[in-house]
Amino acid sequence: MSIRLIVGLGNPGPEYEQTRHNAGFWLVDQLASSGLQRDKNFNALVAKTKIASEDVWLLQPQTFMNRSGQSVGALCRFYKLTPDQVLVVHDELDLDPGIAKLKKGGSSGGHNGLKDITAALGNQDYWRLRIGIGHPRTLNLQQGVADFVLHRPRKEEQPLIDEAIARSVQIIALMVEGNTNEAMLRLHTNK
């Protein structure tokens, strides 16, 4: 099955734009060459674009992170998309800045956006593109997780995150073509 919806997770509003939790938004912004439009039916910013000669929906929920499933579920129901046609791009505490990983299914790992999407779709069988932001503990920071994700990356972390997003953008066409094994191989071996 090939990807027909790419969801970038983040929080709406200018105060969150540059925070680690918005890494999913950053990637979708790069894919939306003609920009995203507000769609009140999905409570999201939405665009339809061509990737690898296929129509693909881009979505940035405009709910807060823990309600992302409302937008994802509504668009999937309306366009009759199945979970295995969905790629959710999100920040990942368990990966260092500069690392990006693909996986299908699995637990939410405590990520409230993923929990809500799983509830809305009725299962966990959607793709996840995990953009590493590091964990305050592994980065030797005395900061709680909630505070950490809602702050900007440090100046040495931002280029690493940007690089991981750029590498991720390069494998999106493979995902749209349904060539997920090749996409994973390229992303995971080209650190």
From TrEMBL:
It comes from the Bacteria. The active site is at H21. Its EC number is 3.1.1.29. Keywords: Cytoplasm, Hydrolase, RNA-binding, tRNA-binding. GO terms for biological process: protein quality control for misfolded or incompletely synthesized proteins; rescue of stalled ribosome. GO terms for cellular component: cytoplasm. The record marks N11 as: Discriminates between blocked and unblocked aminoacyl-tRNA. It is found in: Cytoplasm. Pfam families: Pept_tRNA_hydro. InterPro entries: Pept_tRNA_hydro, Pept_tRNA_hydro_CS, Pept_tRNA_hydro_sf. TRNA binds at Y16, F64, N66, N112. The record marks D91 as: Stabilizes the basic form of H active site to accept a proton. Hydrolyzes ribosome-free peptidyl-tRNAs (with 1 or more amino acids incorporated), which drop off the ribosome during protein synthesis, or as a result of ribosome stalling. Catalyzes the release of premature peptidyl moieties from peptidyl-tRNA molecules trapped in stalled 50S ribosomal subunits, and thus maintains levels of free tRNAs and 50S ribosomes. Monomer. Belongs to the PTH family. This is Peptidyl-tRNA hydrolase. It comes from Undibacterium parvum. The lineage of its organism: Bacteria, Pseudomonadati, Pseudomonadota, Betaproteobacteria, Burkholderiales.
